[in-house]
Amino acid sequence: MVRVTVVYEAHLLRAALVELLESGGIRVVSSLPHWPQGVAEGAPPDVYVVDAECLAPAGAAPAACPAAEGSALLALIPAQRPGVLRRAHAAGATGFVDKNGSKGRLLEAVRRVAEGGRFIDDTLAAEFLEAAEMPLTRRELSVLALAAKGEPVAEIAATLYLSKGTVRNYMASVIRKVGARNRVDAIRIAQGAGWT
């Protein structure tokens, strides 16, 4: 029997996902709102089923990398969020399931990645193409993420060890690349795509 750990921040949805998996013959060994810190006790699960929006932005790996403990990572991807898909890929996911998909697709995906295979939901094909074309560099994403938190140019510059002029140049580049009208619009576009 496939052993699964579910990582989903929203308690009600996490509980529903656990029930759905168990009704399909999958054994859920744990259910967490966030990635576990450090090494988990006992045997690692065969698969981590994770809400991809819980993954760290800008390609940062999760605190407990599933591949390091021999587990597969199956990411639940929201529609029209190519940045979230990109995060899941960067975190080492081998399975990608559309959150709007069917129970059967999810169960098939869990079983396939548990056997060492890959699974990509058909509905996510266009999302993969968009994710591959993300126009911003890692540095531009860093500047944009701090701007999204409301940091002024001087604080962004100090945090990233850049000059204020360089930060302004990065913001101008971001605005141009995403087709935004201003800084606020660029943040809205980037967050809507799941890049930050």
From TrEMBL:
InterPro entries: CheY-like_superfamily, Sig_transdc_resp-reg_C-effctor, Tscrpt_reg_LuxR_C, WalR-like, WH-like_DNA-bd_sf. PROSITE patterns: HTH_LUXR_1 (PS00622), HTH_LUXR_2 (PS50043). Keywords: DNA-binding. The keyword Transmembrane helix does not apply. The keyword NADP does not apply. One of its GO terms (molecular function) is DNA binding. Residues 129-194 form the HTH luxR-type domain. Pfam families: GerE. This is DNA-binding response regulator. The lineage of its organism: Bacteria, Bacillati, Actinomycetota, Actinomycetes, Kitasatosporales.
